[in-house]
Design a protein that fits this description.
332 residues, alpha/beta, Nucleotidyltransferase, domain 5, 5-stranded mixed β-sheet, 11 helices, 43% helix, binds 5'-O-[(R)-(carboxyoxy)(hydroxy)phosphoryl]adenosine, binds zinc ion
Length: 332
């Protein structure tokens, strides 16, 4: 069965066609980054309006790129939450209307479960059980994944998400939005030699806290002259290393606690090669393998939504067209 997936939870309008929950026939992502860039972050009202403009052309393009007709689509899936309500409503309402008009099965998808499902779109996906980290602009969640439908939340951030910290630190240094890619590029040029704090919280906790690190960077920028590119790069590299060390330590600890030899990382921050490579190296020392989707599947996309939707539809776990979106995590 070919499933049409739709994602509109934040600042990407995306549509994808995925066959059998595994084979991507097309995946189209219309990013609004250029627009939000001017404001240094996502402006929810603007995001909703841009989703409205993009949704039909993006779905059309996905169907065309796959070389399909609408009648080839056997099911519809859309992100139901968590995310920005106005943004979610555009993709979710479109998908419900599409499913209703064509009398197709419909599945509302949890955005975090979709990020975990991006791992199943890899050529060589992780086998169960594994530890999954969803690390993005909105979330830093660690799960113990024991089956295609069982995601036990082990820990989450208590304040900022890791991606949010990247964005805020970048903003402090005038690097623009989104901050992750800018910090990654800059960080390559200088050593990470500023001793920023690593907040590890309680020994047995898998939670994260990045606000102390963010404040330490703010203080450092306030107290030192970081106007030159090389000083900015030192701050970027040192901040990135602090985030990497915390993620690495907590993930390895979670894997050891749950006796898992596999860790999957997904979400926007997992596109960071320096972070991912450091995790691979650290984990290898403990006999643990790290899995990361291809860069196009790390950030928000609709292929992961279609993959999760396929599983739900296949299991008969359909969503009523009377259901609505939700902004906050339901169970996760
Ligand atoms: O998964 P995503 O596209 O959207 C959310 O669900 O949030 O993640 C976006 C986040 C942003 O905070 C962005 O700065 C971060 O992922 N990000 C990165 C990189 N690319 C994107 N963070 C660090 N390094 C990167 N290369
Ligand atoms: Zn996301």
């Amino acid at each position: 069965m070919i499933v049409l997936g739709i994602e509109s939870s934040c600042d990407e309008t995306a549509a994808a066609l995925v066959q059998g929950g595994r084979t991507i026939l097309s995946s189209v992502i219309a990013s609004q980054v250029e627009v939000h860039h001017q404001y240094g972050g996502v402006v929810p009202e603007l995001a909703s309006r841009m989703h409205i403009e993009a949704i039909v052309p993006v779905v059309d393009e996905a169907v065309q790129k796959a070389g399909l007709r609408l009648s080839d689509i056997g099911g519809v899936a859309a992100t139901q939450g968590p995310g920005l309500i106005g943004a979610l409503l555009v993709g979710f309402s479109f998908a419900k209307a599409f499913a209703f008009a064509r009398q197709l099965p419909f599945a509302g998808v949890n955005h975090l479960e979709a990020h975990i499902y991006s791992l199943f779109l890899m050529d060589d996906p992780p086998e169960f059980p594994f530890i999954a980290l969803v690390v993005s602009g909105g979330h830093t969640n660690v799960y113990h994944v024991t089956s295609p439908d069982q995601f036990e939340l082990l820990g989450r951030t208590r304040d900022d998400a890791a991606g949010e910290a990247f964005d805020k630190v970048a903003k402090m240094m005038g690097l623009g939005y989104p901050g992750g890619p800018a910090i990654e590029t800059l960080a390559r040029t200088q050593p990470p030699d500023i001793p920023f704090p690593r907040t590890l919280l309680e020994k047995d906790s898998f939670d994260f806290s990045f606000s102390g690190l963010k404040s330490a960077v703010a203080r450092y920028i306030h107290d030192h002259d970081v106007s030159s590119a090389s000083e900015k790069a030192r701050v970027a590299a040192s901040f990135q290393k602090a985030v990497t060390d915390v993620l690495s330590q907590k993930l390895i600890q979670a894997a050891q606690f749950k006796k898992c030899s596999r860790i999957g990382i997904s979400g926007g921050v997992s596109a960071n090669k320096t972070v991912a490579e450091a995790l691979v190296q650290n984990a290898a020392g403990h006999g643990i393998r790290i899995f990361t989707p291809s860069p196009a599947l790390c950030g928000d996309n609709a292929a992961m939504v279609a993959a999760r939707g396929y599983r739900l539809i296949e299991q008969g776990r359909l969503t009523s067209l009377k259901e609505d979106v939700y902004s906050r995590p339901k169970i996760h």
